[in-house]
Amino acid sequence: MNDQPPKLLIGLTGNIATGKSAVMRLAASHGALTIDADKVVHDILAHDPSMQAAIAVAFGSHVRKSNGQIDRAALGQIVFNDPEALRDLELMLHPAVRLEITRRLRESEARIVMIEAIKLLEGGLSQMCHQIWVTRCAQTLQIDRMRICRGMALEEAVARIKAQPPQEEKVALADVVIDTGGLMRDTERQFELAWQRLPSPDSVEPRVVPDLPPPVVVRVVAETAVSTPPPPALPPIERPENLDVRRARPPDIPSILLLIQKATNGTVSLKRSDLLMALGERSYFIGQIGAQISAIMGWVVDDMVGRIDQIYLYPLDEGVVTGTAVLEEIEQSAQNHIAELIMATLPDTTPAAVVQLFQQRGYQPRSSLPQNLPRNWQAALGETETSQGQQLFKVLRPERIRTRS
């Protein structure tokens, strides 16, 4: 892959709600670059004018919004029950997806890459991969996950499952199969075993990938391009000796549920099963002084962008201290995951002290970012446009902020 050291490419697939996100999160925690092919498709539909125009011609102008972006819901209504239309759409998208994935591979310094695609085997992406990993679980668990984590009705969940080929077809072509039907620690155990058996990136043969178009000449934006200067650095909060930050574990669930209830005055009420399921979908860091948990933040990293979307502190004075330590730990973890940008979603009801906590760590509003951003950043920002509350951002790799000359 050019003059870069060789990369080991792992393709991850599996039917809907079989635990692919949990495996991707584990790979990211081990330093792998993780690429979600579905997110790449969303990026193309939102930001590629030529593809937008082609899809509008093929499927009708009504699938294109007034801003040029593709209305995925309208397009989905056409292709979901029409196999021929779906095949036509995939023939249009798959080459562009492979090209964009290739671009991200060449821009990344990661030696191990995991590419997730529900149609990895059908779309040709598997030819780029050295190993194929497949997740599986019981159909009843798939339905439970779709109902709990995605809010689907039972009928819709069953229809989604029936629309996909049997899991066994993917399992038969796998180099590694990870059964996510047990506890999270069982999934982690299978992952660790498969990870330890991976060949060295130096020992694998480079895969043939599509040629890229001539590179666009870029220059780094001057620091003055940032319209809002970062807030002045404040002295670090003095940490008590018995302050501890760690990843949440299933035994912490009762304490976490109680903290969430207190922090939200009972407006957010989760069941144990909901939180247990969520622990498999994202990382949670908790902060405590002694045995008392006073801060919890849930976050996930995807396509080199970190997202903090669950923030609970109680009591507030103590939570600001432990919350600052938790945020520092998340940022360090994001750096380890090769994240370039981290964003936080703060509900409108967020106390001013919590907003200030993020501002003191260098988080700024969207207006502080320049217009010409990497495409993966643009995609992440686009997904936050409909989010409720305040969006704050922190750039971890400022050298990625570029503009066309």
Describe this structure as you would to a colleague:
With 405 residues, the chain is α/β, with parallel strands linked by helices. The protein folds into two domains: 8-203, Rossmann fold (3-Layer(aba) Sandwich); 223-404, Aminopeptidase (3-Layer(aba) Sandwich). It has 15 helices and 13 strands. The strands form three sheets. A six-stranded mixed beta sheet has the order 7-8-9-10-11-12. A hairpin with a 2-residue loop joins strand 8 (283-289) and strand 9. Helix 7 packs across helix 8. The longest helix is centred in the N-terminal third of the chain and has 25 residues, at 83-107.
Task: Give me a quick take on this structure.
The chain has 405 residues and is an alpha/beta fold.
SSE map:
Elements: E1 8-13, H1 20-29, E2 33-36, H2 37-47, H3 49-59, H4 72-79, H5 83-107, E3 112-116, H6 120-123, E4 131-136, H7 139-149, H8 154-162, H9 167-171, E5 176-179, H10 184-196, E6 218-220, E7 243-247, H11 253-263, H12 272-279, E8 283-289, E9 292-302, E10 305-313, H13 316-336, E11 341-346, H14 352-360, H15 375-383, E12 390-395, E13 402-404
Parallel strand pairs: 1-3, 1-4, 2-3, 4-5, 10-11
Antiparallel strand pairs: 6-13, 7-8, 8-9, 9-10, 11-12
Helix pairs in contact: 1-10, 2-5, 2-15, 3-5, 7-8, 13-14
Q: Keywords for this structure?
A:
alpha/beta, 15 helices, single chain, Rossmann fold, 6-stranded mixed β-sheet, 2 domains
| Rg over CA atoms | 22 Å
Order of helices and strands: EHEHHHHEHEHHHEHEEHHEEEHEHHEE
The rounded distance between the terminal residues' Cα atoms is 26 Å
The residue-averaged pLDDT reads: 83
Shape: globular
According to CATH, the homologous superfamily of the largest domain is: P-loop containing nucleotide triphosphate hydrolases
Helix coverage percent: 40-55%
Total domains: 2
Which structural category do the helix and sheet elements fall into?
Answer: alpha/beta
Number of helices, counting only DSSP H or I runs of 4 residues or more: 15
Number of strand elements: 13
What is the topology, as strand order, of the major beta sheet? 7-8-9-10-11-12
CATH domain class name of the largest domain:
Alpha Beta
What is the name of the CATH architecture of the largest domain?
Answer: 3-Layer(aba) Sandwich
Estimated share of beta-strand residues: 15-25%
| Main beta sheet | 6 strands, mixed
- CATH fold type of the largest domain: Rossmann fold
Unreliable spans:
210-234
